[in-house]
Design goal:
Blueprint: E1 6-17, E2 20-31, E3 35-39, H1 46-53, E4 61-66, E5 69-70, H2 79-83, E6 86-89, H3 101-111, H4 116-129, H5 145-157, E7 163-167, H6 175-190, E8 194-198, H7 202-206, E9 212-217, E10 220-226
Helix pairs in contact: 3-4, 3-5, 5-6
């Protein structure tokens, strides 16, 4: 039965590279406002699953619905409009090194055609939330790993997306910085965003009681469980 509150639905989704399946026959139903960990060893298909959701890759077979929209039917020129609903946080940050922290975060709003005054207010508000407003004029190479990840989170959330995807966002961080990243994502979950985090950090996962854990093994859905 369809869940009317579903924001992400997958029906028998597979992705092949040549003859090899990165993910195979995945069916999922994720409700709006859920906090999800996608777990599994390296090579299990976690990153591929994320890429399929924000259309960095297209499924070889199956269907994916985002907020009721069948993304397999979206033309390439409509992909940017889909991505305005989705914020993405990468393990390696993917910040532009020769642009300031402010400019990196503002890019999302500039691409959406937001007015400059609104951009300034929204960017500074989210930088304050992340505790890095004092770094607005700094450049990414001068920041610590934890600070760069907070900039990456700010960029992902500044457009108020309904879905936030984080691909191993704490993989290169120490425990304190990793917990800080998780705390920030919980704040946005409290505001209604649906959060999906691909991670193999068992300590981080077990500390998040509100989450549901989805396990992948060799690209296949191996189980799903609510954290107690």
């Amino acid at each position: 039965m369809e869940n009317k509150d579903s924001i992400i639905r997958m029906f028998n989704v597979s992705k092949r590279y040549g003859k090899k399946h990165a993910v195979k026959d995945i069916s999922l139903d994720i409700a709006a406002g859920e906090f999800i960990f996608v777990t599994g060893p390296s090579g299990a298909g976690k990153s591929t699953l994320m890429k399929l959701i924000y259309l960095a890759e297209r499924a070889t077979q199956g269907q994916i619905l985002i907020d009721g929209m069948n993304i397999d039917r979206i033309s390439y020129d409509r992909v940017p409009f889909l991505r305005r609903r989705i914020g993405v946080i990468f393990q390696d940050f993917k910040l532009i090194p020769n642009r300031s922290v402010f400019a990196n975060v503002a890019l999302v709003l500039e691409a959406a055609g937001v007015k400059q005054l609104t951009i300034k207010n929204r960017v500074m508000t989210v930088l304050k939330t992340m505790g890095i407003a004092d770094k607005a004029n700094a450049f990414p190479p001068s920041l610590s790993g934890g600070e760069q990840q907070r900039v990456a989170i700010a960029r992902a959330v500044v457009g108020n997306p309904r879905i936030i995807l984080a691909d191993e966002p704490t993989g290169s961080l120490d425990n304190r910085s990793a917990q800080m990243v998780l705390d920030y994502l919980m704040q946005y979950n409290d505001r209604g965003a649906t959060i999906l985090i691909a991670s193999h950090n068992i300590q981080l996962i077990s500390s998040t009681v509100r989450a549901r854990s989805i396990s992948l093994v060799d690209g296949v859905l191996a189980g799903t469980a609510r954290m107690l």
